[in-house]
Automatic annotation (TrEMBL), chains A, B:
Biological processes annotated in GO: prolyl-tRNA aminoacylation
Highest taxon of the lineage: Bacteria
Protein name: Proline--tRNA ligase
Domain notes from UniProt: Consists of three domains: the N-terminal catalytic domain, the anticodon-binding domain and the C-terminal extension.
Keywords: Aminoacyl-tRNA synthetase, ATP-binding, Cytoplasm, Ligase, Nucleotide-binding, Protein biosynthesis
Subunit structure: Homodimer.
E.C. number: 6.1.1.15
Length: 491, 491
């Protein structure tokens, strides 16, 4: 594998695009805006899915599956929802192809037009709430705690692998509750679950907060979010959890009989994370040599590369490598022994560096003589010679150490790129000079938010939940604010 | 839960439709032909997925993900393939909605017409082989062993839950090989993997065979299949694996450099099973009281129901129940303790009978006195009193016993419903009287096959791989045959 990756300082955006392809995570397909997730990228996504799915189940949720298609009339029932998604909907209008009569090839059969057009789901609130009407009659049927793993389509005009694609994979939770309080508690809980996953598995620190009104999900009364900071100083929304009030229950007439026998509308939440998380993972940890994957999500945590000049050496090295692989696997470490004879060790070193495998172990004839292994860490690019009696403990220990180091580095980067400012001058200076999160007072109006966005491209990422509630004056209008909010340019 | 299930003998088809809904597996949605897979149904599907996915990985396959949409021009590249699927394609023609100018509501924006229509994938050979062209250059890139878990859409006019739906979930394997021999070996291997799963996890015996030319997948040179027999004497195709020759490689120009430096087309296979397996599972084992789920796929293998008249009794019973739950879980048994006070024991008994939970344990005050448990098997509907010292071993043993019993029963049903006939008269008599598989001589022509199909609705399910290769005469034309083939009416 040739090292021809653009560096981050040269062109961060180009570095990202090249890296995703060169590390075999994903590539563009022949279909505008739709990506192919390659086996290596999908293996990481599967690890993410497995952990998230476990967390959802531990918090009482069950999986189900709802239709890909949503009749146009359903989609239109919740007004702000359709406004939010109408401009990017893929629409199915026909259900058959046929041979053109003039022999020019295959055409859409004009006689097979659907009575009602179907929208390819951009999100499933409408089809799911149409179903919940049948599932909810009494307080005994609540809460409904359901999650779906699915593909969704939003017809984006400008797409980038993982970050913004016309089709993407995600999970969407949709819950129904008897009371407003319970629904809010659920929405908050799922924000915490997401933060737990992103911080402890992806090693990406996040700020928990709520969105301003203009940044809320179409149809939500409150949008909880987790915001991460990428290495170019731009923020990335890593997950959202919405308190939907009774909007969808009213649009789809979902009522329940209370214990007292009254009919009331149900309270709702929805929450989701997507393959966009892959983009956050890549952009938080990776470097100019390639990917850096945290051990908890690495398909291979350790790769063993044999060094040899002849068959005899290969056999001797292989024996030790296989024994080590066995011992590490017994400790729950995912180890690959790359014994391919089609590639040289140097090529393999580059390949695994590009693919971000946390630990690389090389074994050569010298090591056999000395009873040692060469252990290289991907995160620090450092190498060490480890003796046979310490190798298993060292590698097992490195799993935690690397995971922690990546998280600590990311926290430190964020700390260095979070700035409190008290004037709009400072705001613009900091944004220009180093980006990152800017903590500033805001008067709470959409007008001010819009002005800042138009003039600087920075948006309010969130009103942090654990932010200081100090009094202050808006950096634009000087009007009183209730506390600082976080601005940043964002993906 | 009221017992109002139509019996199998009254109306098998109605029994199936009611059962799927009453047991909370799935229901029809507001979208024509598309189903909602409910949490209980999805939990069973997840167990199937997990086992299949493990088997695919153990045989060297990796997962990946390809676009939902296929440009019409790709789709048309392999002639027999497009012929096979053109009549049932959902077609995306537009990418935006807007408010109608006359205020009549939301309409499809006529200005947002796609330059080229997109087909919602009915199967992914074309988009995948368009991608493989980029992935395959040399023999070193082969074999490519890839699987995808996805939703697909085939616009069926008459649909039934799980058995035939416009959208369904499935996995589709797509492999590329350097030689014809390897590709055929792969296609055969996957048929065996499917048979292994269906027999050992679903407890459904299958016949392995190949399809006749007219029943092959559109674009295949050979279709391997596994065929199961349902309780109404109709066959169900449970999985197929296709040897595709070089058809798709030629259509999409996928060539590789051999070791000798020659350019050759790649050899292909594809193979899939779908949520249709859920239908096979239901129809093979279930009875007039509801579902019967084999232990290996049951989300809950055991349910414990407490019997009590007051809080004191409840507490005492609960303590024993929780202890048992813990002990059984330690043995790897999936146990639910249903301590809901909103439902009576009788209601719970009916519910778990309907849902096919393999073992039900009841504990009441009498049991506490005697140190016993009442253990009920769902498969035999028998009950037994088991003492405390034997309960764990008994229940653990029942898991295997029930799994084996279900399989044995299904084999026995199939044996009793497989008939050898030597005349067309006999053929029609048997088909009418008891259905099932009919083993008969056939002259190998599509004309004869068509005639039998038109006259009796029976099709050739497969040419069994381990069928007797005896000589004989076709039951229709009297011409020589090379061996018996299996006929049946089929789902």
């Amino acid at each position: 594998m040739a090292k021809n990756l653009t560096t981050r300082s040269e062109d961060y955006s180009k570095w990202y695009n090249e890296l995703v392809v060169q590390a075999d995570l994903a590539e563009n397909s022949g279909v505008r805006g739709c990506m192919v997730i390659k086996p290596y990228g999908y293996a990481i996504w599967e690890k993410m899915q497995a952990e998230l799915d476990r967390m959802f189940k531990e918090t009482g949720h069950e999986n189900a599956y709802f239709p890909l298609f949503i009749p146009k009339s359903y989609f239109s029932k919740e007004a702000s929802h359709v406004d939010g998604f109408a401009k990017e909907c893929a629409v199915v209008t026909h259900y058959r192809l046929k041979n053109a009569e003039d022999g020019s090839g295959i055409i859409v059969d004009p006689d097979a037009k659907l009575e009602e057009e179907l929208i390819v789901r951009p999100t499933s609130e409408t089809i799911i709430w149409d179903t919940y009407r049948k599932w909810v009659q009494s307080y005994r049927d609540l809460p409904l705690l359901i999650n779906q793993w699915a593909n969704v389509v939003r017809w984006e005009m400008r797409t980038r692998l993982f970050l913004r694609t016309a089709e993407f994979l995600w999970q969407e939770g949709h819950t129904a509750h008897a009371t407003e309080k319970e629904a809010i508690a659920e929405a908050e809980q799922m924000m915490h679950v997401y933060a737990d996953f992103v911080e402890n598995y992806m090693a990406v620190p996040v700020i928990k907060g709520v969105k301003t009104e203009s940044e809320r999900f179409a149809g939500a009364l409150e949008t909880y979010c987790i915001e991460a900071l990428m290495q170019d100083g731009k923020a990335l929304q890593a997950g959202t959890s919405h308190f939907l009030g009774q909007n969808f229950a009213k649009a789809f007439d979902v009522k329940f009989a209370t214990k007292e026998g009254k009919q009331e509308y149900v309270w709702a939440t929805s929450w989701g994370v997507s393959t966009r998380l892959m983009g956050a993972l890549v952009m938080t940890h990776s470097d100019d040599n390639g990917l850096v994957i945290p051990p908890k999500l690495a398909p291979n945590q350790v790769v063993i590369v044999p060094i040899y000049r002849n068959d005899e050496q290969f056999d001797a090295v292989s024996e030790v490598a296989k024994e080590l692989q066995k011992e590490l696997r017994a400790q729950g470490v995912r180890v690959k022994f790359d014994d391919r004879d089609t590639q040289k060790p140097g090529w393999k070193f580059n390949e695994y560096e590009m693919k971000g495998v946390p630990v690389r172990i090389a074994i050569g004839p010298k090591d056999l003589e000395n009873g040692t292994f060469e252990v290289a860490r991907r995160d620090t690019l450092s190498k060490e010679i480890i003796s046979k009696d310490k190798i298993v403990a060292t590698v097992v220990g490195l799993m935690d150490e690397i995971q922690t180091n990546l998280y600590t580095k990311a926290v430190s980067y964020r700390t260095n790129h979070t700035t409190e400012v008290d004037t709009y001058e400072q705001f613009k200076e900091v944004l220009e000079a180093k980006g990152g999160f800017i903590s500033a007072h805001w008067d709470g109006t959409t007008e001010t938010e819009e002005q800042i966005k138009n003039e600087t491209k920075a948006t309010i990422r969130c009103i942090p939940l654990d932010g200081k509630k100090e009094a202050g004056s808006c950096i634009i209008t000087g009007k009183p604010s209730k506390g600082r909010v976080l601005f940043a340019k964002a993906y």
